[in-house]
Design a protein that fits this description.
CATH class of the largest domain: Alpha Beta
Oligomer: single chain
Strand order of the largest sheet: 5-4-3-6-7-10
Shape: elongated
CATH architecture of the largest domain: 3-Layer(aba) Sandwich
Radius of gyration: 37 Å
Strand content: 25-35%
CATH topology of the largest domain: Rossmann fold
Number of helices: 11
Low-confidence stretches: none
Largest sheet: 6 strands, mixed
Number of domains: 2
Distance between the termini: 47 Å
CATH superfamily of the largest domain: von Willebrand factor, type A domain
Number of strands: 11
Length: 334
């Protein structure tokens, strides 16, 4: 009974074929004598009460064919078993991640370094934002939009996992990174638009100033959360390269323009966070996750399993059985 309650038909109009059943029955009735002629005798007393069992059970052939026809109609109607139906509201906004790829992101105050921890936490954040469109921009001495807004989170995570320092000219162009993200979000029609900008330094490159980029974000209704990444004090960080192009690490002061990041966040309605270790960065992303909730309607998701093959197989088996019986057990002489 539960099975029938969970069944739907993709092509219910196929059941109109069942209206042919009475017509087929009438056709069989009027053609029965022509197909099975009777022997007329003047006196039936000699064969009175005699009837072979084949004659008694010949109706089985008609029953088998009728049931096979009904089963075939059910197969054409495409019965589907509903496995799961989800009706719910989701939380969907447009989010752009702007991640610093300057060489200082290789500093080892985070293990193994700031960049690897930032990539890991960003990917975990993407996993938590099930219904959001997410994009990715990177910046160092210049900026580049890596991934446009998309709901294909696997693509976003794949690009994040492959981020490396050295892709872009070195430096920290915070204004360029922010403007690259704003440029991709400005056409969004969603109610809530967010940029999460992560950096570990001072703005020292780029031809777009951070305050101009911040004004653009505010004009387009984009909220900016800024994250400063780095311990307080000193950390082993790249200071130069040797002749083989390898970074040389030395103990260097950690310098983050926190006043600038606070101003950007404040003017756009966001917040500034300081991550001094991997755990604090994880908590920051979780905090942003809790802050950014916007309900949207999610269409019902229905998962089904096709069941027509069961009825098609039943129709085939019954037809084969009917033919076998007709030409063996119930075979008639011409």
């Amino acid at each position: 009974m539960n099975f029938l309650q969970n069944i739907e038909f993709a092509n219910p109009e196929a059941f109109l074929l069942l209206l042919l059943m009475p017509l087929i029955g009438v056709w069989y009735y009027f053609n029965y004598r022509r197909r099975y002629p009777e022997l007329k005798m003047p006196d039936l007393r000699a064969v009175e009460g005699i009837r072979s069992w084949r004659g008694k059970f010949r109706i089985v052939l008609h029953i088998l064919r009728a049931i096979s026809f009904v089963a075939l109609v059910f197969a054409l109607a495409r019965p589907q078993l509903i496995l799961e139906e989800v009706k719910r509201k989701g939380e969907g906004i447009d989010i752009f991640l702007a991640i610093d790829l300057s060489s200082s992101m290789l500093a080892q105050d985070f293990k193994p370094n700031r960049l690897e921890v930032s990539k890991r936490e960003a990917m975990e954040f993407v996993d938590r934002r099930e219904f959001d469109r997410i994009g990715l921009a990177t910046f160092a001495g210049e900026a580049f939009a890596q991934v446009p807004l998309t709901t294909d989170h696997d693509v976003v995570k794949d690009f994040i996992s492959k981020l490396e320092c050295g892709f872009l000219d070195d430096g920290t162009a915070i204004g360029m990174g922010l403007s690259a993200a704003v440029n991709r979000l400005k056409e969004s029609t969603t109610e809530s638009k967010v940029i999460i900008l992560l950096t570990d330094g001072m703005n020292n490159a780029g031809y777009i100033k951070p305050d101009i980029a911040s004004d653009l974000a505010k004009e387009f209704g984009i909220r900016v959360y800024t994250i400063g990444v780095g311990t307080r004090g000193q950390a082993y960080a790249p200071v130069s390269r040797n002749r083989r192009g390898e970074f040389i690490f030395r103990l260097s002061p950690v310098e983050i323009d926190e006043d600038l990041l606070r101003t950007i966040a404040s003017e756009t309605g966001g917040r500034y966070f300081r991550a001094t270790d991997a755990q604090s960065l994880e908590e920051i992303y979780k905090t942003i996750d809790r802050l950014e909730k916007s309900e949207i309607e999610i269409n019902p998701i229905v998962k089904t399993s096709e069941q027509f093959h069961r009825f098609a197989l039943l129709a085939l088996v019954l037809l084969v059985l009917e033919l076998v019986l007709r030409y063996t057990v119930f075979r008639t002489l011409p």
